[in-house]
Amino acid sequence: MPVAPVLPLAALILLGLAACSTQLGKNGQPTTTVDLKYLAKTEVDRIADLNRQELVSGLMMLADKLYRRNPREWKKAGHPSREAALERLNRRQAPLWPELTGLREGPAAALAFSDSYGGDRVAALVYGLLTMVDAAFEHKESFYLFDQLDERKLYNCARNVEVAVWKLAHDRSAAGEAFLLANELDPANRNLSFEREFGRLIGLLDFLARVVADRNGRSFSRLTQNVATMIFLPVGLLK
């Protein structure tokens, strides 16, 4: 069993200083308090916490935008409103998704672009992406001193978001129609807000992957996928 590295004294002192905050008391005198949770967090842990929050909120915003452009999707699942469909996505517990037959991550997201799938395509796509993020962050919402992330999972998650963007723009049903409406490419009314937000999420994942690789003493090179054969890469199954 590997032994966790011992932090040098200087690092412990810096962590202690980061955990302290100074405020003016009622008598006008400065008072210093210590938030104990920060004693167990490194800067990378704080970056991971914020990164994960941004990724989840960004994907939920994209789900809302997709539902607004594709209202038939939330209606397929019998939801009384778009808000109800979003709340189900936000919780995403397994028992709430019988139509996905236990699929998560890439296999769930791929259903959104399958002619044979008759369910809510927005839910399948975003549920797949959300569960990829969950897996890339080891199913944790907060990170502390000895928690470990795997840069390969974060990297694959970023590539999978790229796959989703490509499929939204290019995949078509047998009838030649887009499975889901996203960016509006009409020259008279261009709207690339989906692409911009997806790009932001890709940047967050790639940045954190590099930070984690540096902390782990590893490096990796970016591989380019052939867009004609783009597939969702494994995240949670990586060992």
Number of domains: 2
User: How would a crystallographer describe the biggest sheet?
Assistant: 2 strands, antiparallel
Intertermini distance: 16 Å
Q: Summarize the amount of helix as a percent range.
A: 40-55%
Helix-strand makeup class: mainly alpha
Spans of at least 5 consecutive residues whose pLDDT stays below 50 are 1-18
Report mean pLDDT, rounded to a whole number: 82
The helix-strand sequence is HEEHHHHHHHH
Q: What's the number of extended β-strand segments?
A: 2
Order of strands across the main sheet: 1-2
Silhouette: globular
Q: Approximately how much beta-strand content do the residues carry? A: under 5%
Number of contiguous helices: 9
What Rg, in angstroms, do the CA atoms define?
A: 21 Å
What would you say about this model in short?
The chain is built from nine helices and two strands; from the N terminus they run αββαααααααα.
Element layout with pairings:
Layout: H1 9-19, E1 20-24, E2 30-34, H2 36-39, H3 43-69, H4 71-76, H5 82-91, H6 105-110, H7 121-136, H8 151-170, H9 193-215
Antiparallel strand pairs: 1-2
Helix pairs in contact: 3-5, 3-7, 3-9, 7-8, 8-9
